[in-house]
C-alpha cells in the first residue's frame, strides 16, 4: 500500500548517516524515528524569527532583533535569590539604546566595547530600552527552527542529521508535475527543505501548502486503493434474488416509493447481484424513508433463503425498527429482536432459530456482535448511524458474514467534504427527496417568558388528536438557574395537561421503563412526551406534529435538526418551537438558522462553517487520520482539490497501464 511518508526509497536506516552513532540511533528510536524518511518528516514544531530589523521602524513593545555596536562596558547587578541584571549600551540604527538582560550574567564576557552584537527582545520605545532575551552569535541569522525532541537531543544536532539526509539521499517521490504547476506547489523535497532550513515566512507558508496538498493527495489515493481491495470478487457474493417476488412486495406497500428511494434500492440490488461484496452508505435526511429501502434489501436476501442483521446504537431504536419492520413485512419475513434486555430464555430461543436459519432478519443493538450469536447464512449487514459504533464492533459483526454485504445507513447529513474522508472507501446512495405530501416543519424561536404561548399552541394540537415531543436537556437540578431540567418541565406540562396526558422518559431510567413509556406515547395513550434527547434518533410517530425544545441553545445545529426530524413525518403540518434565551452570538445565529431552513444538507454546511469538522462527529469519530501539516478541521478545501486530483491521477495511471 502506498505509504504517506515514504519519499526516499529504499530508505536507509538512520545509522547510515555519518552523524548518527549507536547512541544517537537509540535516542532517535525513542522518538520513533527509524529511517531517513522519518527524519525528513519530523518537522519543526515551531520557528523563531530572528531576522535583523531596522529599529527606527519598530513600535513600542515590539519584539525585535537588531544589530549594533557595543558602546559601554557591560555592568551586572546581583539581587537576592541569585537574580541578576546585565546592562549595556549599544548604538543601533543611529540610536543610543539601553540593553538589559535579566539573569544571564555570563553574557558579560561576550560583549566587548566597540564590537558588533546582535540581540533580540522587547523594545520599549519611550525609554529607548530593549529587554533582551537573546544574544545572537551565529552569523546566519534569520529563522531558527525548534524541534520536538523529547529532551533527548538539541534541535541543532537534529538539524545536522536532517542536512546530511538531504545531502546523501535521493528523494525519488514527488507530486505529479501537472499538479505542481496547476496549484503552484513546490517539489516535496524543496518544501521539506524550506521547512527544515527556512529563510523567511513566505517560504515556510509555501512549503506548508505543498506538504498539506501532498498529504491529502496521498491520503485520497490510499482511500481509493482501499476501496479497490475491499471490493473482493467472488462468485459466492452473487445474490440471485427473486426479482418478481421483490417487485410484488413493493406493490403491496401503502405508498409509492420516491424516485430517490427507487434509485437507492436499485443501486443496492445491483450491488447484490454482482460478484463483489457490497460496501454502501445510504445517506438520507431524517424522515426521508431509508428504512423501507433497507427493508427491500433484506427482503431480497430472504428470497434466496439467507439472513440479514440490522444493528442500531440504542435499545429504543431497536424497538422502533422492530416495529417498523413488523409492519412493513406483515409476516413475510421472520423477524426477531435481540438487545441487552432480552431475557435469557428468549435469547437461547433466538440463537437456536438463527442457527437453523429460521430467522430472516435479526434486529438489535451491539448484542448482535456477541460470539454466541451465530447465523446460518448471514448475507447482509445493515447498521444504522454507524459512526456510533467502534471499528471493532463493526468488524466483529462483519466477520459473521457468509456473503459479505454491508449497508450503512445514516441520517447525519454529512457534508460532502467530510464524507469523502470518513466514507471515502464506500459507495454512496443519497435520498434527498422527501416522501410526497410532506410539509416543511414550521420552526419558531421563543423566549422563556413566552412559554405560555407555546402551551396554548400545544393545547390546540392535542385537541386535534396529535402528539407532541417536549425535549429538555438535563435530568438533575442544573447549576444555572434558567436552565429548565426535565423534571421541572414535566411538572409544567402535567400542571397544564394533567398526568394522564403526559409521559416522562429520560436517560437515567431503566431500559424497560423507558420502553414502556415510549410505547404509551406511540400508542397514543399519552399524547405528550417529555424527554431528554433519547429521542434523538430513529423514533417514528407520524402522528406527532409538535415539538418543543427547551434550552435549544444547548444543542448544536445537527442535533437540533435530528430532533426536529421526529415531527413532520406525515402530510400534516408540523411545528417545532425552540425555547431559548441565548447568551452568545453564536447561539443566536443557530436559532436563526434553524428557523430559516429545514434542509439538512444546508444545515450541515452551516454547521461545518461554524464549528469546523473537528468535532463534527464528536468524540466517537476519532478515526480521522492525523497528518503532520494538514488539518482536516481546516483544510477541507485543499482536501477537495486533492481528491479530484487523485481521481484524475488514478484514471490516468489506469489508462497508461
Ligand atoms: P428515515 O429512516 O430515513 O428517517 P423512515 O424510513 O423512518 O425515515 O420513514 C419515515 C416515515 O415515512 C415512515 O413512517 C415511513 O413509513 C414513511 N415513508 C417512507 N417512504 C415513504 C414514501 N415513499 N411515501 C410516503 N411515506 C413514506
Ligand atoms: Mg430511520
Automatic annotation (TrEMBL):
Gene3D superfamilies: Nucleic acid-binding proteins (2.40.50.140), P-loop containing nucleotide triphosphate hydrolases (3.40.50.300). It is an enzyme of class 5 (isomerase). It holds the Pfam family RecG_dom3_C. Residues 271-431 form the Helicase ATP-binding domain. GO terms for molecular function: DNA helicase activity; hydrolase activity. It comes from the Bacteria. Its EC number is 5.6.2.4. The keyword DNA repair applies. Residues 454-609 form the Helicase C-terminal domain. Keywords: ATP-binding, DNA damage, DNA recombination, DNA repair, DNA-binding, Helicase, Hydrolase, Isomerase, Nucleotide-binding. It catalyses: Couples ATP hydrolysis with the unwinding of duplex DNA by translocating in the 3'-5' direction; ATP + H2O = ADP + phosphate + H(+). Coiled coil: none annotated. PANTHER family: ATP-DEPENDENT DNA HELICASE HOMOLOG RECG, CHLOROPLASTIC. Plays a critical role in recombination and DNA repair. Helps process Holliday junction intermediates to mature products by catalyzing branch migration. Has replication fork regression activity, unwinds stalled or blocked replication forks to make a HJ that can be resolved. Has a DNA unwinding activity characteristic of a DNA helicase with 3'-5' polarity. Monomer. Belongs to the helicase family. RecG subfamily. This is ATP-dependent DNA helicase RecG. It comes from Salinicoccus sesuvii.
